[in-house]
Amino acid sequence: MKLGVFTPVYGALPRTAMLDRVAALGLDGLELAAGGYPGTAHADPAALLADPAQLEAFRRELAARNLQVLAVSVHGNPLHPDEDRARRDHDDYRRALELAARLNVETVVTFSGCPGGSPADRTPNWITATWPPEFLDALDWQWQERVLPYWSAESAHLRTLGLRVALELHPGFVAYNPATLLKLRAGTGDNVGVNFDPSHLYWQGIDPLVAIRELRGAIHHFHAKDTQLHRQNIERNGVLDLTPYDRISERSWTFRSVGSGHDELHWSRIMAELRLAGYDGAISIEHEDALMSVDEGLHRAVDTLQRVILREAPAQAWWLD
Description:
By secondary structure, the chain is α/β, with parallel strands linked by helices. The chain has helices spanning 15-24, 45-50, 52-64, 83-102, 134-161, 178-186, 199-202, 208-214, 231-237, 264-276, 294-312, and strands at residues 2-6, 29-33, 68-73, 107-110, 164-168, 192-196, 219-224, 226-229, 253-256, 282-285. Helices cover 42% and strands 15% of the residues. An eight-stranded parallel beta barrel has the order 1-2-3-4-5-6-7-10, surrounded by four helices. A two-stranded antiparallel sheet has the order 8-9. Strand 3 (68-73), helix 4 and strand 4 form a beta-alpha-beta unit. It comes from Deinococcus maricopensis (strain DSM 21211 / LMG 22137 / NRRL B-23946 / LB-34). Keywords: Isomerase.
């Protein structure tokens, strides 16, 4: 496994300073934000693709620090019912694919997207209930008319580039749990897989250890981010929480740095499950912990993950003897 960091955490820094910080942490590489919600603070695909000299300079900056790009990330909503918004996010995604291909990076991370509930909608409609019955009609329309046609075409396009996509299971989008990801994968292709981020699973009541087994063979990337569950608030209001993120004491759950929501033994078990599932790829730290500074949160995550990855690394392939 290779340990890296998702670059928006250093969005306020110029690229050279960001790379210096990543190297100083002793990491193997980075998940490069290249459009969509994360923005392009450190890598503007259009500029890099238009100027071979800029792209080569970026490669030299990475090599000088013994770093590699572990994935290119472009979280957006190409299924947005607003056609202009959908086109913009789709174009960002396609440019990210081209940049990944030029950098010899296999994996592009994004969201599955969310359309409206009908051709007349102007805002996304995330459907999570089976009643009243019109919800199921709208859900069927979404998948048959928007989701499967789009991702089937993208699966074919990925195949021409030799790439794969890792869809983050995020509430608000059509693929948000193992069942919806596997439904999408079955209707498209095996180059459509998952960015496994346990932080979005904990608060839905999903056990990441069980989910990893369910998604065996479909895990293309991994986000290392934790969640702390506030049981008293959950018991009062449930987990569908619209309380602003900065009112932490009132929320049902809060994103935390790795090891601050669940203990080290739990994270050791996650690493073991990933290995048992055949995953030996990037472990990309995403920092969104409002209770820790960037440096404090990243050092906590790096220290924890370096220990558990080393602990769970097989000493030798004894089963091949």
